[in-house]
Amino acid sequence: MKIQITKQSGIYTLTSEQLLPMTLSEAWEFFTLPTNLDRITPKEMDFHITNDPPNRTYRGQIITYKIGVFPLIKSNWVTEITHLEEQKFFVDEQRFGPYAMWHHEHHFAETSAGQVLMTDIVNFKLPLGFFGDLIAGSFVKAKVRSIFTGRYNILKELLRS
């Protein structure tokens, strides 16, 4: 697992890589089933899909959630799948939610060893500009990192069984 967070012009970028012991078609099938997001999000995020998305991700799809952004504080979150290339990548973007901006790319590539390299690239910006960064930047950066670390561990366990 490799996770890195950088910041430029007020926008944070998280890059996460994970090797998955599965075929590209299996990985695509798993990660484009919206309800699997509930399964791979760490429990402490108190994350729940609130609409009833179909069993397949598609361009233009809207998914609504409730998510715990701070202890005892839940937020509604609406994302749209804005780009999708079958068995290569898809992008979800926040339309309404806790961030000033959220753009999440999910990339999948088969390796020569028959595994899949999954790369997540998340660009996000906090609300309130400089003040948002000052008040919550370190906390949110650590929280986003912990979500992807948790996701890595959950996937490792799920794929082991």
- Major pleated sheet: 8 strands, antiparallel
Helical content stands at 25-40%
Strand content: 35-45%
Mean pLDDT: 91
Number of H/I helices:
3
Please provide the ordered H/E string of secondary-structure elements.
EEHHEEEEEEH
Query: How many strand elements?
Result: 8
Give the class from helix and strand content and strand pairing: alpha+beta
List the helices and strands and how they pair.
Elements (H helix, E strand, L loop, with lengths): L1 E7 L2 E10 L3 H8 L4 H5 L7 E2 L12 E9 L2 E13 L3 E8 L4 E10 L5 E10 L3 H32 L1
Antiparallel strand pairs: 1-2, 2-8, 3-4, 4-5, 5-6, 6-7, 7-8
Question: What does this protein structure show overall?
Answer:
- The radius of gyration is 15 Å and the shape is globular.
- It has three helices and eight strands.
- An eight-stranded antiparallel beta sheet has the order 1-2-8-7-6-5-4-3.
- The protein has helices spanning 24-31, 36-40, 129-160, and strands spanning 2-8, 11-20, 48-49, 62-70, 73-85, 89-96, 101-110, 116-125.
- The longest helix is centred in the last third of the chain and has 32 residues, at 129-160.
- Helices cover 28% and strands 43% of the residues.
- With 161 residues, it is of the alpha+beta class.
Summarize the structure.
By secondary structure, the protein is of the alpha+beta class.
Question: What features would you highlight for this structure?
Answer:
about 45% strand, alpha+beta, about 160 residues, 3 helices
